[in-house]
Amino acid sequence: MKKSLGTSSTIISSERVEGTTVYNPAGDKLGSVDDLMIDKISGQIRYAVLEFGGFLGMGTDRYPLPWNMLKYDTQKEGYVVPLDKDKLEQAPHYAESDVPDYTPDYGRRVHNYYGADW
Amino acid sequence: MKKSLGTSSTIISSERVEGTTVYNPAGDKLGSVDDLMIDKISGQIRYAVLEFGGFLGMGTDRYPLPWNMLKYDTQKEGYVVPLDKDKLEQAPHYAESDVPDYTPDYGRRVHNYYGADW
Fold it and tell me: Residue A28, Cα to own-chain centre: how many angstroms?
């Protein structure tokens, strides 16, 4: 069913965020947002989980990106992250079927890798 | 594909929140979370959108609930909101295919209805 998802305000549906393309600053498509990881208590989104890698959509992995790294680009209709593919390939990631616990240690590891504030 | 969604930390997947049952304090099932509405800038969840009403899953509508109204109950494995069905039936809602803009005016109307802080 086609949905109008309400883009003219600052409020957006999680269904709309999921599936949105993620680019690097050079305009290369890195992948798309597969999932959002949320702090249960505060309701704050902590990570956008990028689907990246693989071949023709097969064998992709999941790369948690600290939410603050994503900037929405209205021209591209996608998010831009300050990353190139080489940096991303070495980043913490996991198989879709093997989601780790997002413990503080894991979160710190992800943030440290990207040089993002914890 | 079966997913482990990481429940032992305070971080939870949006895919896990969506579909979670919502109860009233008496333990009656009101419906389930269909979607989350997010502040694009801050990444803060503002509303859980409850699927409610209808008959045998047909003709349900969507009821935005201010996120702070939902408390997770580990025993019930669902959210509890301080609402009865009568209160909910009169609440702001819309058809799945007719999502309104979540403007400040709309948000204020929803919060006012539930007596929630704006």
Answer: 15
Contact B5 A36 (CB under 8 A): no
Show Cβ contacts of residue A115 under 8 Å, excluding neighbours closer than 6 positions: none
Instruction: Please give the model's pTM, rounded to 2 decimal places.
Output: 0.84
Interface of B with A in 11-70 (CB under 8 A): 11-15, 17-18, 35-47, 49, 67-68
Per the model's pLDDT, the better-predicted residue between A88 and A55 turns out to be A88
Closest chain A residue by Cα to residue B42? A44
Cα–Cα distance measured from residue A63 to residue A91, given in angstroms and rounded to the nearest whole number: 7
Return left, alpha or beta for B76; rule: phi > 0 is left, psi -120 to 50 is alpha, else beta.
alpha
SS3 (DSSP) at A63: strand
Give me the residue from B6, B14, B97 closest to A14, CB to CB: B14
ipTM above 0.85, yes or no: no
pLDDT in tens, B83-95: 988 999 999 999 9
Whether the Cβ atoms of residue B109 and residue B115 lie closer than 8 Å to each other: no
For residue A99, list chain B residues with Cβ-Cβ distance below 8 A: 3-6, 13
User: Which of A52, A49, A71, A108 has the alpha carbon at shortest distance from B13?
Assistant: A49
